[in-house]
Amino acid sequence: MNVLTFSTLTLALLGLLASQRERTPSKPQILSESSFTVIGISARTTNAQEMSGRGVIGKMWQRFMSEQILAKIPNRADSNTLALYTDYESDATGAYTFVLGAKVTSDAKIPDGMVAVKVPAGKYSVFTTDRGPTVKVVPAAWARIWSLSKSQLGGQRAYKTDFELYGPEAADPQNAQVQIHVGIK
Questions:
Q1: For the chain, what is the mean pLDDT?
Q2: Domains (ranges, CATH) in the chain?
């Protein structure tokens, strides 16, 4: 093997190790969240449905953006967008309700076609995605989260409510960073 081939292989191996390090989730931050309410649009789905090409989440995001749903939500607590996974039938294999909306200070006025969902107080493992296109970094982060053991996750999943927080770091969907809050017991 010549020096050039050895150097090329060494660089390739170092690159592979670096990318593996990037894909290895760091220990999550554990937060206790107070309860809050979200108003938004919702649909019932399953992970199997989402992976089959018959999913609703992508369509909901398109509607959310094209109809400027965020601007129609009254009493918003902040400018963040939240994507909730709630009302779990069982676990990651069962049906759940997906809600796309915003945290509100009051749910006294719920616009037609929207729902209000109360997120219970609880403990959450918080993960931050890599930076990149949301359509790539968010599913990649969930894939990593699903592969974690209970101890790596910071506790057993509660399957009550999980949510993605799209804050200022997610303003550019092509170069976004999103927080994923996973409910734990």
A1: 88
A2: 29-184 (3.20.80.10)
